[in-house]
Amino acid sequence: MSTYADPYASSRETTEGTVFSVTGGDWDSLVTEIGQAKEERVVVNMGPQHPSTHGVLRLVLELEGETVTEVRCGIGYLHTGIEKNIEFRNWTQATTFVTRMDYLAPLFNEAAYCLGVEKLLGITNDVPEKANVIRVMMMEFNRISSHMVALGTGALELGALSPMIFCFREREKVLDIFEFISGLRMNMAYIRPGGVAQDLPAGAVDKILATVKDLRHSFKDNEKLLVGNSIWMKRTEGIGYLDLAGATTLGVTGPVIRATGLPLDLRKIQPYSGYENYKFDVVTADTCDVYGRFLIRINELEQSLRIIEQCAVKLKSLEGAPVMVADKKIAWPAQLAIGADGMGNSLNHIREIMGTSMESLIHHFKLVTEGFRVPAGQVYSAVESPRGELGAHVVSDGGTRPYRVHFREPSFNNLQSTSAMCEGSMVADIIGAVASIDPVMGGVDR
Amino acid sequence: MAENQQGMFGAAGTGDTSGYGGLVRSTASAGSAQRPFGGYFDQVADDLERAYPDFADAIERVVVDRGELALHIKRERLVEVALILRDKLKFEMSMGVSGVHYPDDKDRELHAVYHLLSVTNNQRIRLEVSVPDTDPHIPSLVEVWAGSNWNERETFDMFGIIFDGHPGLTRILMPDDWQGHPQRKDYALGGIGIEYKGAVTPPPSDRRSYK
Amino acid sequence: MGLEEKLPSGIVLTSVEKLAGYMRKNSLWPATFGLACCAIEMMAAGAGRYDLARFGMEVFRASPRQADLMIVAGRVSNKMAPVLRQIYDQMAAPKWVIAMGACASSGGMFNNYAIVQGVDHVVPVDIYLPGCPPRPEMLMDAILKLHDQIYDEKLGPNREKVIKEVELAAMNAVPTHQLKGLLA
């Protein structure tokens, strides 16, 4: 090896022992140093930039040989100050910020926030039925795309390369639907307070039904790759064990707690946006390990497809129904449409405000520059995101800007359980456990 | 909540769209809600009273608003109330701590809001603790719900509320040597003006704002 | 090898430049530096539909020592900036940086205390790619433009000449803050 002294490869003494920074290519110098050290325990830093830690997550491990004795998570590498940024924006503009928190499930962030704002406004029952159906359908599609990333990257981190390509292939089909309906593949800011941003384009329902059929067929390929695969099962069974008591006290929700056998799903127990009208099952497992969570995610895909089919049937009969709340003092004025130069005010709307109705023009002006006012108070509204309970604590002081919006992110609370899951296991099992929690660091750090 | 709001604002319910008035608007803060609360809130309040005889002493205020029950608790009694809620009233899961900063609320500036979920009874409840800026200490609930650990660290990081009894209260989202607590209202947003060929777009905190 | 430094400017050096440029651009290995939403689009660019493997780039090297290209995909927070610099320093020359997305190019929509307003405050950037997030096709377009840049890179005495010219042009150019447009 070279004799060049790397400025970043170092070791230093701390109260916990010697800390080594390994940069690659200097393994033998590390081994010599460890051999000279008196202690058996080594502290290793799996830094924020790491292919297997699911984003910018830093894991500090204390190892005894290959066994992990202590795991600590370092987070905050993606802290964006979204919650503070929102305090300087309109209630509607905040949707575009909120959508970028948990970037794999943007519609859920928006839904939690908009449900909170609607609760504060008191218009929860005035949101039109078509808007609710579209919200449910888009959220279930988003659940599918999020689970695809979770399954694909989880498999990739454990060494299975093909599921990644397969899962991203299915995800692209879902992203095509998103692009068709909202104009964007990711971070769409489609769900707005009062309804959704724009109506479905022509031919949407047929395209949706065709995609559902396609996905159902493709999911079989994904299942065949990993379910029942003995290598996969050896890597995932018994790993990352977290039982019901641990999950409850740690506030863990989502597939992790459903893997302990508890059917905790907000869509069933505290339904929102009309979820009580759909027939679907809550998927649970009773093995409390990574394999159980993996099976839950695979089976939730089928349940989501069921819900989407029911939504499509409803949408067929709701042609021409409004997608925004009727109150003109709250509803985002323009029926947005996709034109030749992208998404913007529909021509009908421009014709109306410029030619016909002064009141519409004034509403448009006031709503876009000032925004609507939300009466003072605070609410907590929660949705069931692919990772667990995503809650928005929205505080208003009666003005046009949010006073404080705090998101109770499932990934943030779920990630706390890493220590409970991983201590005592091998280094390789940490990767599997973290992958099964499926943290999205944008949500963790906000 | 701000008691007196002044400055630029538009009209709600009137025809005034000028928005430049020197209007002064005062919002009265709500008092405590009276019985009956409605829904399952009465049952929760009754159970709490039965299990915790000093209930009336510990609860500063009860607010029932928009279908949600909020109990404002004195900080000294927080751990006791939390234990009773967890063990007797079956609120097994805590959804975490959320901090809110009300700079106008003298001696009650920092609020810590806890959301609890009871899976057995399918109920939600909110606990709120208010502390002054000069003495921002709240007892930690890590012993009651272990998941509060990171949430309390985050509230400390963002607001400066010190949770007594927390096993390791350090910064979690900001770098370890950061000064200040970002989400407080007296902490600047920190944006910079964007300049392009002579035109400047001010950062979001300096733009024209409607109250 | 240093061969390119020893060759005098002329037809041989030009041919070596072309060969080296061709080799470098056709097997550019990216370092995994996916941070936020743009990382997902980067992964989608590497997946089946928008295939990066046709440019020889599907091997995202985890170790920066083995990578040539750092695609900074996502918002860089103040806590992450030193890590970004450390990874950039560990890459061996020649190395290039693409700032993918609005947040990496300029801080994006997050103009606040937590986000570095453009990664060019931390590392030198070759290509800025706007978008929130940029589509995989946009990322590939940026990569192809970078390929053209790499193909045209000069070596040896030609390189020194180019560096001198660029420096002279920069010194004589109007400073950015004195450029005035219509709104000044």
From TrEMBL, chain C:
Q: Does the keyword Cell inner membrane apply?
A: no
Q: Which GO terms describe its cellular component?
A: respiratory chain complex I
InterPro entries assigned to the protein according to its UniProt record, in alphabetical order = NADH_UbQ_OxRdtase-like_20kDa, NADH_UQ_OxRdtase_20Kd_su
* GO MF entry, a single one: quinone binding
One record GO biological process = aerobic respiration
Q: Where in the numbering of this chain does the NADH:ubiquinone oxidoreductase-like 20kDa subunit domain appear?
A: 37-146
Recorded hits in Pfam families, A to Z, give: Oxidored_q6 (PF01058)
Keywords assigned: 4Fe-4S, Cell membrane, Iron, Iron-sulfur, Membrane, Metal-binding, NAD, Quinone, Translocase
The record ties this protein, via HAMAP family, to: NDH1_NuoB
Q: Which NCBIfam families match?
A: nuoB_fam, PRK06411.1
Recorded family membership? Belongs to the complex I 20 kDa subunit family.
From the Swiss-Prot or TrEMBL record, give the protein name: Unannotated protein
Specify the species.
freshwater metagenome
Organism phylogeny: unclassified sequences, metagenomes, ecological metagenomes
